[in-house]
Amino acid sequence: MAEIQQQADSGKGGKKRAKKMSTKIDMTPMVDLAFLLLTFFMLTTTFNKPNVMQLTMPVKEKNPDEQSQIKASDAFTIVMGEANKLYYYEGLLADDVKPELKLSNYSADGIRKVLLARQRQNPKTVVLIKPDDKSNYQNMVDILDEMNITDQKKYALVDISKADLELIKTSGL
Questions:
Q1: Rounded to an integer, what distance in angstroms lies between the CA atom of residue 150 and that of residue 111?
Q2: Coiled-coil region(s) at which residues (predicted)?
């Protein structure tokens, strides 16, 4: 609240001067309002939720003989190579079986299209992701994003084998 203070008349005669008036502005209500608004916005604001990908890590089994084996017809293998290259093949790689290796990319028209087509054919598909030592971290994030986008239920990160590296070299892709 603002108020005007007036000085009392001194009572001396003589020249009359204009009365000096000083103004005093009370800042208390404005500060109260500022803190009230600050408190309101602090309590009603929602903070940024962290954008985190949820990963479920497998439990370490005590007996390796009890591990279930993947059927070759359900397996789909993605090999992440160097220089942003992405290879894939259907089935499992064995000594007597050499699957046809195909080249793709990380775009929506690349591996996403292939994964969606594979999912329509076989909903029980298990994707094996094999990153090469020379592949980069961004490619790993991209392929995990593709797993989430395509709603892939089962996928695993597996170490790349020498047979996979040899398959890439012999394919000429």
A1: 10
A2: none
Q: CA 151, CA 115: separation in Å to the nearest integer?
A: 10
Alpha-helical segments (H) within 5-103: 28-44
- Domain 75-171 is found in CATH 1.10.3470: no
What's the pTM value of the predicted model, to 2 decimals? 0.63
- Amino acid at position 169, single letter: K
pLDDT tens-place values along the chain, 173 residues long: 566 665 555 555 677 777 777 888 889 999 999 999 999 999 998 887 777 777 777 777 777 666 677 787 888 999 998 888 999 998 888 777 788 889 888 888 889 999 999 989 888 889 999 999 888 999 999 999 998 899 888 888 888 888 888 888 888 77
Q: What does the block give as tokens for 97?
A: 């079986």
Q: Which residue has the tokens 């994030």?
A: 141
Domain ranges within the chain, ordered by starting residue: 75-171
